[in-house]
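Email to the structure team, subject: DUF2264 domain-containing protein model.

Hi all, the expression group asked for a predicted structure before they design truncation constructs. Nothing fancy, just the tokens so they can compare against earlier work. One-line instruction: predict DUF2264 domain-containing protein, return tokens.
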Amino acid sequence: MVDKQETAEGKKTRQYWLDTMLKIADPVLNALGERKLKERLPLEFHPDRAPYACLEAFGRLICGMAPWLESEGLEGEEEERRATHAKKVLDGIDSATDPSSPDYMNFSDIGQPLVDAAFLAHALVRAPKAIAGQLPEPVKQRLMTELRRTRRTVPPKTNWLLFSAMVEAALHVLGEEEYDRMRIDLALHLHMDWYKGDGMYGDGKDFHWDYYNSFVIQPMLVDLVALLCDTSPGYAEMADTVLARASRYASVLEHMIAPDGTYPPIGRSIVYRFGAFQHLAQASLQHFLEEKIAPEQVRCALTAVIRRIMESPGTLDEQGWLTPGLYGYQPELAEGYISAGSLYLCSTVFLPLGLSHDDPFWAGQDAKWTSAKVAAGERIQADQALYL
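Reply from the structure team: attached below.
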């Protein structure tokens, strides 16, 4: 049984997470609700990416919010906020897919729109009741039309294959009987071929030392296999292997969080900030952490990461929009493909808000994470590789 002190710790931390997520979300959702996102989203940073920035901001944002929106059994103020933001997301999809809307979004260009349509699609997979299931029929049909437009892009043999697969998975969730199973099958089987060992996949046949196993690859693999394992014996056979590797990689991510909440600034897209820990957040949400990693220590580790970044001056501008950087405003860290909208992938760290208040993630007493234990001189078991 959880005592009152333990419950109080988790409650306080959950409130901080929720307030932080909505602080990041509200400028996007409020502007979109007024059909003024294109007008308000800062576009002076890499203005050549302006045609894609709004879909990037919206799709990536709701990808992280979706489990909270899908959650049931909330009460009081949090439930009121959840219901309000669920409506904002539904209204946002209406605005994004309405050709007469000033915020009608770009799903049709070849290339980048596939990426962010896939993040929006992942939100539908994560919230089949609260988002996909609540769309008015005309809006649902428009959304399906826009998702189909992304088929114009032939993805390269990299993590982009998962974007095409996730779009098809969302069409399946929306009731499309003729979704393209081949796109899903190709993505899953090639990623199985690209596995490099010890919980890590290549981005294509090559290994990249970055956080794309967390930004894209493993979260999408886990959810695709879980959604579709009943449709094919081959997918069902993959499921245990995918999950074992996913559990190991979640442990690797947890080990990478330093005692002060920093982590290695390695590889591409580091300006997605704590989105680098999407996969660790998902492992907590879906309860596939390795036994040696307690949910409450992940809560504390991720909270340290969130605080370190959010308390850095310049992370948000004066209007509350995210700025490019890792700790504050550091535009030099952003590659040429990054827009202001790209930064909203950071929302995926908040996936555990989809857990109930009495889940061990929130109910457990504060605990040190692995690097904090080691730095404090505590005795713990040595880390071990996964031979699968």
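Residues 1-6 have pLDDT under 50 and may be disordered. The longest strand covers residues 195-197. Ping us if the truncation boundaries need rechecking.
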